[in-house]
């Protein structure tokens, strides 16, 4: 079992930056790939970025490639550095634990979400 708690959301102007954190608890955190998803009002939840259990492979949605960077440390935390933010990045961002099978496979482990609002 993995418990996930996100933090770091907020309101920022377009072009600005935010860094999201996801603190995981559970002895098997290091064996999971980790991902970030987001859900904007009236839209379905969508994949944003993921990283494998060793931190050696990353995946990104085309919409954030070159602007967002996912990373993880050895202290049960995964990060999402978001630069050059756009109003269309506004959403609730969720942390997820899953698997790397050549692409990211989310398991049903989700955090409570953190709101990111980008003003124009």
What percentage of the residues does DSSP assign to strands (E)? Answer: over 45%
This entry's quaternary arrangement is single chain
**Average pLDDT for all residues:** 95
Question: How much helical structure, as a percent, in the residues?
Answer: under 10%
Cα-to-Cα separation, first versus last residue: 40 Å
Secondary-structure element order, N to C: EEEEEEEEEEE
SS-derived structural category: mainly beta
Per DSSP, the total helix count is: 0
Q: What's the overall geometry? A: globular
Largest sheet: 7 strands, mixed
Count of DSSP strands: 11
What is the rounded Rg? 13 Å
Uncertain spans, ≥5 residues at pLDDT below 50? Answer: none
Walk me through the structure.
This protein is mainly beta and 120 residues long. 0% of the residues lie in helices and 56% in strands. The protein is built from no helices and 11 strands. The chain has strands spanning 3-7, 10-13, 18-25, 33-39, 46-51, 58-60, 68-72, 77-82, 91-100, 104-110, 114-119. A hairpin with a 3-residue loop joins strand 9 and strand 10. The mean pLDDT is 95.
Key phrases:
four-stranded antiparallel beta sheet; 120 residues; mainly beta; 56% strand; seven-stranded mixed beta sheet
Question: Could you give the topology of this structure?
Answer:
Blueprint (H helix, E strand, L loop, with lengths): L2 E5 L2 E4 L4 E8 L7 E7 L6 E6 L6 E3 L7 E5 L4 E6 L8 E10 L3 E7 L3 E6 L1
Parallel strand pairs: 2-11
Antiparallel strand pairs: 1-3, 3-8, 4-5, 4-9, 5-6, 7-8, 9-10, 9-11
């Amino acid at each position: 079992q993995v418990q996930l708690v996100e933090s770091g959301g907020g309101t920022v102007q377009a072009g600005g930056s935010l860094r999201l954190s996801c603190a995981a608890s559970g002895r098997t955190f290091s064996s999971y790939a980790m991902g970030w998803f987001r859900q904007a009002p009236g839209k379905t939840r969508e994949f944003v970025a993921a990283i494998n259990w060793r931190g050696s492979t990353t995946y990104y949605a085309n919409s954030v490639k070159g602007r967002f960077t996912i990373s993880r440390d050895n202290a049960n935390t995964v990060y999402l550095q978001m630069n050059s933010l756009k109003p269309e990045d506004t959403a609730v961002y969720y942390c997820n634990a899953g698997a790397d099978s050549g692409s990211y496979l989310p398991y049903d482990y989700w955090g409570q979400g953190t709101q990111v609002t980008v003003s124009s």
